[in-house]
TrEMBL record:
GO function terms (MF aspect): betaine-aldehyde dehydrogenase (NAD+) activity
Entry-linked InterPro entries: Ald_DH/histidinol_DH (IPR016161), Ald_DH_C (IPR016163), Ald_DH_CS_CYS (IPR016160), Ald_DH_CS_GLU (IPR029510), Ald_DH_N (IPR016162), Aldehyde_DH_dom (IPR015590)
Classification lineage: Bacteria, Bacillati, Actinomycetota, Actinomycetes, Pseudonocardiales
Disordered: annotated span: 1-20
Protein name, entry field: Betaine-aldehyde dehydrogenase
Domain Aldehyde dehydrogenase, first and last residues per copy: 29-494
Superkingdom of this protein's organism: Bacteria
UniProt entry tagged with the keyword Cell membrane: no
Biased composition (Polar residues): 1-17
Family: Belongs to the aldehyde dehydrogenase family.
UniProt source species: Prauserella sediminis
A Pfam family it matches: Aldedh
Nucleotidyltransferase keyword on record: no
PROSITE patterns, per database record: ALDEHYDE_DEHYDR_CYS, ALDEHYDE_DEHYDR_GLU
Length: 501
């Protein structure tokens, strides 16, 4: 593993200290009424790079009211006009990819080359994809009897309250904004307190093409702005991405008013390596599936790697070897594969899990461990890829979502038993199977209790897939036309008597 200096700052320009940003409410850019602010820290070196308003009930009230007003005309526009506005946003974001990606890396620590640039490109694709689907919110006719014409309409829901986390803020915000708006809803989006700047910069572009109030973006803490939004009676739909604990809270708030909720939550996803898959390409695939290139800060991270006992030692050696080739360092440095964890809190949390693993009887540390206390990596929130072997599936490090670059390798012997272990979790987001045996691969894919299983690949979600979790990993689907229809429209039947009864 190569280490680059985090503090070289050779690219330091004013772009690297974006400064003060405001919230978008009713087409205006505003501060919080009580003039409170949240500092935004860069995890690459702990410096304060900007600040955003600490919005709360007052601003959420204004934003929901503006969204409700805008809904009247936005929802009745011809769908193709809404689609056109969304496609114009895609075109306007395209030349800004580098700037927005850089901002994202600065504030959340994801490496620019391996993560943020791709994430910003996804934003363009996503606006383009959903912009093209504007006329696909079709209804059906139902042949009830010859005397009745019964048909359905897909109608928007109203004001959507959306909340996103910090780990892929551009992608996750776009995945809510574009389908919701195309379907005719308006939105109040609350950005994450740890990474608000890139989404607010994106909102500045969106606003050029949208009527005032169609998209509102509020910054603030979960307990303040977030709670105000999920409890607001004017919100007709809640769309949340984040932890399972907060997702439960969102669902409770929705239950009070029978407000529909979509939840994209946490995971502790399994990767199962069969005895015929002891190969370097599998080790590289497992590394990608574990989302090491995003410091393991991904809901779909395959953080429990079950390796057949016959190839256990050899495969662990390959995995460790592959991980030794990656470079951890300054997220803005083009040579860094892996950047920094998002915040001091996350850094401490991940270190606590590593300590827990190191103190666990029987666990062996095959790579990584606690971060160095001096040298370049000590200057930001950098944690090296960490591999624990000889892990038991019931241990804390194997059962709780660490959300850091820490993988547990667990031996297995029997196919039924490994499937049982893989499913022995309250999560059910993703799964990965590695084998040349088609039957074993598909049997296992079908047996895993997860919303998305990949066989012999470890990539990220692709537009068009209906992505979402089983069990406590979520409710509802995103990423697709079907997801848009399910999450952001309601089906209405209209029954017309034809006058001959
Ligand atoms: P989090 O749940 O702590 O916070 C997410 C968002 O919710 C933030 O904007 C936060 O301010 C807000 N929030 C916090 N408390 C709130 C409350 N009481 N009411 C309303 N809003 C509140 O999660 P995080 O630490 O920011 O993100 C990491 C988590 O997100 C992980 O569990 C990860 O698996 C999950 N995640 C899931 C997906 C998915 O697609 N399933 C994608 C990305 C992240």
């Amino acid at each position: 593993m190569t280490i680059t200096r985090s503090q070289e700052h050779t690219n330091m320009t004013t772009e690297d200290t974006p400064g003060t940003e405001l919230m978008l409410v009713g087409g205006d850019w505003i501060a919080a009424a009580d003039d409170r602010w949240i500092d935004v820290e860069s995890p690459r070196d702990g410096s304060i790079i900007g600040r955003v308003p600490r919005g709360s009930t007052t601003e959420v009230e204004q934003a929901v009211s503006a969204a409700a007003t805008a809904y009247k005309s936005w929802s009745t526009l011809p769908p193709r006009e809404r689609g056109e506005a969304i496609r114009l946003i895609a075109a306007a974001v395209e030349p800004e990819i580098e700037r927005i990606a850089r901002l994202a890396s600065l504030e959340n620590g994801n490496a620019l080359r391996t993560q943020s640039r791709g994430e910003a490109r996804f934003v363009v694709d996503c606006f383009r994809y959903f912009g093209g689907l504007a006329q696909e919110a079709k209804g059906e006719t139902i042949p009830l009897n010859p005397g009745v014409l019964d048909y359905t309409r897909r109608e928007p829901l109203g004001v959507v309250g959306a909340i996103v986390p910090w780990n892929a803020p551009l992608m996750l915000s776009t995945l809510k904004i574009s389908p919701a708006l195309v379907a005719g809803n308006t939105m109040v989006l609350k950005v994450a307190e740890d990474a608000p700047l890139a989404v607010l910069a994106l909102a500045r572009i969106c606003q050029k093409f949208l009527p005032a109030g169609v998209l509102n973006v509020v910054s603030g803490y979960g307990e303040e702005a977030g709670e105000a939004l999920i409890n607001h009676p004017g919100v007709a739909k809640l769309s949340f991405t984040g932890s399972t604990a907060v997702g439960r809270r969102v669902m409770q708030a929705g239950a009070e008013r029978i407000t529909p909720v979509s939840l994209e939550l946490g995971g502790k996803s399994p990767q199962i390596v069969f005895p015929d898959a002891d190969a370097d390409w599998v080790a590289r695939g497992v590394m990608a599936g574990m989302r090491f290139f995003r410091q393991g800060q991904s809901c779909t991270a395959g953080s429990r790697v079950f390796v057949h006992e016959r190839i256990y030692d050899s495969f662990v050696a390959r995995l460790v070897e592959s991980l030794r080739t990656v470079t951890v360092g300054d997220p803005l440095d083009e040579s860094s594969d892996i950047g920094a964890l998002v915040s001091a809190t996350q850094y401490q949390r991940v270190c606590n899990y590593i300590e827990d693993g190191m103190n666990q009887d029987g666990a062996q540390l095959a790579l990584g461990g606690l971060p160095p206390s001096e040298g370049p990596l000590a200057e930001g929130y950098y944690v090296e890829p960490t591999v624990f072997t000889g892990v038991d599936n019931t241990w804390r490090i194997a059962s709780e979502e660490i959300f850091g670059p820490v993988v547990c390798v667990i031996p297995w012997r029997d196919e039924a038993d490994v499937v049982r272990m893989a499913n022995d979790t309250h999560y059910g987001l993703a799964g990965f199977v590695w084998t040349n045996d088609l039957g074993a691969g598909l049997r296992t894919a079908h047996a895993l209790e997860a919303g998305w299983v990949q066989v012999n690949q470890g990539g990220g979600q692709v537009l068009g897939q209906s992505y979402g979790g089983f069990k406590q990993s979520g409710i509802g689907r995103e990423f697709s036309l079907e997801g848009m229809l399910e999450s952001y429209t309601a089906r209405k039947h209209v029954s017309v008597g034809l006058g001959n009864n």
